[in-house]
Design goal:
flat; 10 helices; single chain
Length: 171
């Protein structure tokens, strides 16, 4: 019934974050904003977050000034570029801590942080917890910050255009 009504994808309950993000990317692509430059930068950040990402390097890669890129990014994403990169990296780190058997140094490196102390600081700032606390108690889910509703709200904020979500409780 949902497909007949124009749904592009179906997600079964319970919804997992990875499944949700993949379905969203399949239906929307990287057109989260009304600006092609910002969409391209977002795609680059999400696919290269573990690499060195700096405003100046991105501006050179996309052939615009750093000032212009910074203003456009802030205008369409409501945060500055480096804060957004850190947010994506910490989200990835949380997933690694949840699902993997990595130590904190490995998680920091895979999330794109060369300095483990800086990783600790950003992790604590964003989640309110230390990664070591999380590793000591694997059952701790950090749910007050990383619950499904947090990711859902973040993705919907990023789309920035009217979105119709079809929820059929009979499925």
């Amino acid at each position: 019934r949902a497909l007949r009504m124009g749904a592009r994808d179906i997600i079964l309950k319970p919804i997992e974050y990875e499944q949700f993000t993949q379905a969203l990317l399949r239906s929307v692509g990287w057109n989260f904003t009304g600006n092609d430059l910002v969409n391209q930068v977002l795609e680059y950040i999400h696919t290269h977050f573990s690499d060195k990402i700096e405003l100046q390097l991105l501006s050179e890669q996309f052939h615009v000034t750093a000032s212009y890129l910074s203003k456009q990014f802030k205008r369409y994403v409501d945060t500055n570029l480096i804060s957004y990169v850190n947010k994506i990296r910490i989200e990835h780190a949380v997933e690694l801590l949840k699902n993997g058997s990595y130590n904190i140094q490995e998680v920091a490196k895979q999330a794109g942080y060369e300095n483990v102390n800086y990783f600790y600081k950003k992790f604590k700032d964003q989640t309110g917890h230390m990664p070591s606390d999380y590793l000591k108690n694997k059952k701790h889910k950090l749910s007050q910050y990383y619950g499904d509703s947090y990711f859902y709200v973040n993705w919907i904020k990023m789309i920035r255009k009217p979105t119709i979500l079809f929820i059929d409780r009979t499925l």
